[in-house]
Amino acid sequence: MITIANKLLKLTTATALAATALAGGVQAQGVQVSGSDAFNLPDDVTFVVEPGDPNVRRATARVNGNIITGTDVDHRVAWILAAQDIEIPESEVQRLRLQVLRNLIDETLQVQEAAAQDMAVTPEEIDVAYRDFAASARGFTVAEMDAFLASIGSSPRSVKRQIQGEMAWDRLLRRNVRPFVNVSEAEVNELVERMNESRGTMEYRLGEIYLAATPTNRDQVMANANQIIEQLRQGGSFVAYARQYSQASSAIVGGDLGWIRLEQLQNPTLEAAAAGMVPGQLVGPLEIPGGYSILLMIDQRQIGMADPRDAVLSLKQISLSIPGNASQAEAEERGAAFAEAIQDMQGCGDANLRASAIGATTVDNDEIQVRQLPEAFQNLMLQLNVGQTTPPFGELEPGGSLRVLMLCGRDDPEEFEGPSPDQIMMSLEDERVNRRAQRYLRDLRRDAVIEYN
């Protein structure tokens, strides 16, 4: 199997051959060319045989002799669909099947390459990773995970196949790519200096789905990106879509780029988009060199500054239920009495007794971060002093209930110093590894023998 060094040598040789062919006016075979008109394709095309529907492809394929069956595709699709909170349209399912087949082909190539370089993932390693995945993803034992997968039309073999592909690819990148990626101390120090100068400015935790595109397929890739965005906005799982569709190395962690500065994106389009986003916002598709990106703003914080939302609160919830047989007038009367009783309370030490006197109940929580509260409550709680409450909320009607939250204490967060130089270096290395990994996978696809049945 060709190593990274050999592939680079092969590319250099191909470039030299191309130059010789152009100089001599002869036609070379196997030459790598680029550009939108590299193939000199006509604008008006007459096909000798009419092309079929590009979205219809038989599921069975043979990749360098290894078979991918229709059942393999079915089981992977069932696993992905089970992770969604919404019903996927049939047209999207068909597109998903095509993408799954591509992913299975890539996984097969990655596993084959790892085996050829004596880095094969053993069945024992796969079983351990599968057990850990069952526990972390679902809180299941292996037997429970097996039963769940069977119930949704998938199989343990399908999940283990994906685990094997991810582990094999990680090993290949660690040995054949990452050692040849260098980030100098000068680069890191320059970035640290820039961060210190911008202390108090924002740092972002972003999710990304990257779809590679060429000039010839950019319209189709953009259409696919728009369909993904539509599904995400309807409640689809960003992590699931990133794992299945993204062609960036971050796909293995659901597209999570971690905490980064905008300049670490190293792309003006992505930087400008992220600068205007708020937590929970989705934007895209954004056209960047090599393809399209979909961004999700997971969270934000100020560099070198404590995030108030990391404060740990001690809260008391006071609730009053309104009987279902009460009239609306009686409900409003009980609501007014509840609001008055809340105003008369003298802190958390007085709350339980006064709540009991009006038939209300209390629940305490001494360890809840502000960021864990619904967004509507976060800024409100940060403005309260100990012993104060939120305005009453709930349903002021028969059968409804009214509640308030009382602040009983707050532990403010410590100052955050921002990412360490080691973290910055790792982030820069990951970005460069990602670029080389894409080229590596393209080489594997180009050298593969793939037969569709």
Automatic annotation (TrEMBL):
<keyword id="KW-0143">Chaperone</keyword>
<keyword id="KW-0732">Signal</keyword>
<dbReference type="InterPro" id="IPR050280">
    <property type="entry name" value="OMP_Chaperone_SurA"/>
</dbReference>
<dbReference type="InterPro" id="IPR027304">
    <property type="entry name" value="Trigger_fact/SurA_dom_sf"/>
</dbReference>
<keyword id="KW-0413">Isomerase</keyword>
<feature type="signal peptide">
    <location>
        <begin position="1"/>
        <end position="18"/>
    </location>
</feature>
<dbReference type="Pfam" id="PF09312">
    <property type="entry name" value="SurA_N"/>
</dbReference>
<dbReference type="InterPro" id="IPR000297">
    <property type="entry name" value="PPIase_PpiC"/>
</dbReference>
<dbReference type="InterPro" id="IPR015391">
    <property type="entry name" value="SurA_N"/>
</dbReference>
<protein>
    <recommendedName>
        <fullName>Parvulin-like PPIase</fullName>
    </recommendedName>
</protein>
<keyword id="KW-0697">Rotamase</keyword>
<keyword id="KW-0574">Periplasm</keyword>
<dbReference type="Pfam" id="PF00639">
    <property type="entry name" value="Rotamase"/>
</dbReference>
<dbReference type="GO" id="GO:0003755">
    <property type="term" value="F:peptidyl-prolyl cis-trans isomerase activity"/>
</dbReference>
<dbReference type="InterPro" id="IPR046357">
    <property type="entry name" value="PPIase_dom_sf"/>
</dbReference>
<feature type="domain" description="PpiC">
    <location>
        <begin position="201"/>
        <end position="299"/>
    </location>
</feature>
